What does this fold into?
Amino acid sequence: MIRAFYVLKVIATACAIAMCSLAHAQERPKIGAAVYGLKAEFMQLWAAALKAHPAVDAGDVELTIFDGAYDEQTQADQFQRMIGDDFDAILFVPIDEALGAQLVQLAHDAGIPVIGSNTRVDSDLLAAYIGSDDVEAGYLEAKHVLDQMACSGNVVILEGPIGQSAQISRLKGNQKALAECPDVRVLEQATANWQEPAARTLMATWLTAHGTGINGVIGQNDEMALGALAAYQDAQLDPGVVAFAGIDGVTDALHAVERGEMTSILQDAVAQSQGALDLALHRLDATYAPRSDVWTRYPSMPWNGGTDAEYVVPWTPVTATNVGQLLSDRAALQAAADAAGG
It folds into this structure.
C-alpha cells in the first residue's frame, strides 16, 4: 500500500510537469544518471568511469549522478526532479525491476529518453539497454563453487536486494548450477543487499548455526563474498576449506583471487556506464559517433550504428593469469576518475 501510494503520487506530479515541459536536446546536453546506490564499490566504479568518459572530460556534457541510496522513494523523487529540470536524457540503474518501469514511463511521457544500464527494468519503453547477462554470471559462480565441492555438501547463498533484476537473474543462474548437483543442500539463503558489512553479520549468524557444516559460499556479488570470508576469519575458522565465489571483480576481490581465497567474475563497469552515455548522446543526435573505446574492446558487442535495443557486455572470469592486468586497469580508472573530479 505504501509503495502504491507514493508511485501514484509521483506519477500524478510528474505527469503534470510533463504537460508543460518536454525535454529538448541542448548544445551541451544535460544528462542525469540515476543509480540504485553508491555504497558498494561496483557502482562507485560505474560512476567513476562515467565521469571519465571523453565527452564528460571535455566538458561537452553536463552530467549529474544521483545516489538512490537503495531507497525506492529517493529514486522516484530524483526522476521527478530530472523531469522538472528538463534533463535531456537519463541513464538508469534501477533499485526495483517493477517500480523502475513506472519511472521509465514518466520520463517517456515527458519526452526524455532513458538508457538502462547494469540492472534491468520491466519496461519496453527504454531507448536502449546495456548490461551483462546475470543468469550466466550466477551459473558460472555457482558452478565454480560446486566443482570445488565435487557436487557434494552444503552451501549458503548471499543474495542481492530482493526484487532487483540482478538478484532475480543471478539466483536463476545459481539454481541452474545447483540442479546439476542434486546431492548439494542449500542450508541458508538471504539478502545482504550487496553490502559487505551486512554479509559479514549474516554469515556470522549462519556460522553459529552450522559451523563447519558449510562447504561453499555463493555470494551474488563480491562484497558479500568478501563479507562472508571475513566472518570466517572473525570466528577463527579456516576459510581455506570452503569454496567462496562472488561477481563483479571489485578491487578487494581481485586481491583475494590473487591470494587464492575466492573466485570472481569481472563485470565491466566502464563498458556499462560509458556505453550507456554513448547511447544516450546518439539518441539526442543521430550523427553522434561513440567516443568511448568500449565498442572496440568487445568484438561480440559491436556499436551497430547505436541503434540496437540491447547491448550485452561479456563477463571476464578473473584468473591468476589476468588478475595483474585487471588490477593495473583498475588503478588507471581510479586515477582518471580522480583527475575528472572524483
About this structure: The chain has 13 helices and twelve strands. The two ends are 39 Å apart (CA to CA).
